[in-house]
Hints:
Blueprint: H1 2-30, H2 34-55, H3 58-78, H4 80-90, H5 102-121, E1 126-130, H6 137-140, E2 144-149, H7 152-158, E3 169-173, E4 176-182, H8 198-209, E5 213-217, E6 224-228, E7 231-234, H9 238-249, H10 253-263
Parallel strand pairs: 1-3
Antiparallel strand pairs: 1-5, 2-4, 3-4, 5-6, 6-7
Helix pairs in contact: 2-3, 5-7, 5-9
Amino acid sequence: MTFFLWWNYIKPALEICILWIVFYRILVFFEGTRAFQVLRGIIYLLIAFLVSQFLGFDILNWLLTNFFAISIIALMIIFQPELRQGLARLGQQHLFNIALEESEMIAIIEELTSAVYKLSRQKIGGLMAIERETKLRAYIESGIQIDAKVSSELIQSIFNPLSPMHDGGIIIHGDRILAAACLFPLSDNPNFSKSVGTRHRASLGITEQTDAVVIMASEETGEISVAHDGKFIHITDREKLVHILKNLLIIPKKKKNNSNTKTQP
C-alpha cells in the first residue's frame, strides 16, 4: 500500500518530465525549418484555446475546436515531405547531443586546415561553415545532404571545379559534413566594397545571422580568411589558423566545469 501511495505522487511528476523532454526534442528537431514557424503558431493557438476555455468564450471555443480538427489534416498534406524526411532522420538522432572531446576537435581542425591550404595553393574557392549553438538547418536544406565524416580529401573533392557540388558552401557539425552546395545569406554591410566577391559576402552574411565560424579560401587570390561574429580575420600562416579555430571551437575544461557548477542549486 505504501508503494501505491508514493506512486500516486511520483506518477504526475514523471509524466511531466517525459512530456517536457518530448516537447523539447520536437522543438529542437524542427528548429531552423519552416515547420518550426508553423509549430510555434500552433502553440500560440493552443494557448488562445485554453484561455478562451478558462474565460468561457463559447464562440471562440467552437471556432478553435473546428479549426484544429481541419488543420491536422491540412498540415499532414502540406508538410508531407518534411514529415517523411523527419521520421527517416529520427532514428539517426541521439537523444542528447554529446560534445566531442578536445582531442577529436583538434583532429578535425587539422583536417580543415589541411583542406583549406591545399585549396588555397591551387586557387580553388572554398567555403566551410562550422555549426555551433545556432542551428543551421535552414541552410542545410538549401543544399545537398551528405552526412559524412570530415576529411581533407572529401572537402577537396567537393570544391573541385569539376564537382557538381563545388558552388556554395559546406556545413559541418561536430565531426560530420552535413551538406554541400548550401546557399548562405549575403552580407548587406554598407562598408563592404562592391568589388568584393559573392563568396566573401556569403561567408560574412551567415556569421552576421548566426554564431557559426566560417573558413574561406579565395578563388581569385588564394587568400584564407576566417569569418566570425560578422567580422573577417585574415590568415597569414597555418599556425594562426589553427590557433584561431581552437579558440573558437574548443571549450576549455575549466569553462565546462564552471558552467556545470553554476547550474547546480
